[in-house]
Design a protein that fits this description.
The protein has 126 residues and is α+β, with helices and mostly antiparallel strands. The protein folds into two domains: 1-30; 31-122, Sandwich (Jelly Rolls), CATH 2.60.120. It is built from one helix and eight strands. It has one helix at 2-29, and strands at 32-38, 42-49, 64-68, 72-78, 83-88, 93-96, 105-109, 115-122. The strands form two sheets. A five-stranded antiparallel sheet has the order 1-2-8-3-6, with no helix packed on it. A hairpin with a 3-residue loop joins β1 (32-38) and β2 (42-49). The longest helix is centred in the N-terminal third of the chain and has 28 residues, at 2-29. The model has no long low-confidence stretch (mean pLDDT 86).
Amino acid sequence: MPFTLNRALALTAVALSLFAAVRAQTAATQSNRQDQFQNAAAHVWKTTVLPHQPLAMHHHDHPRVIVALSDGTMDLVDSTGSHDVHVWQKDHAYWLPAMPPGAMHADVNTGDKPLEVMVVELEKEQ
């Protein structure tokens, strides 16, 4: 019995290690968003935008504070093709207002390194 239990534990450990390795590799090859915190007042998430891999078009009903975790340039491209270019410096915070109703944008990292930001969206503000 101990041999079977040890073997099952070893196989489980190997499977979990493989899952973690695949997940880490996927995160490194795709732009992604990781929720950090949410309540009635604020929603906080970390976004990593890889070079020239735009995020899908989306809308922000509420204003937000962006805290740059790395240096980079983000181009906010709206559905009409207009560009709003932001140069962000690591460890600095920036204000982005709520978007008008129906407006959409995609975030495009125009640099050559991943751009990481922490986003704090103020849920009660318009």
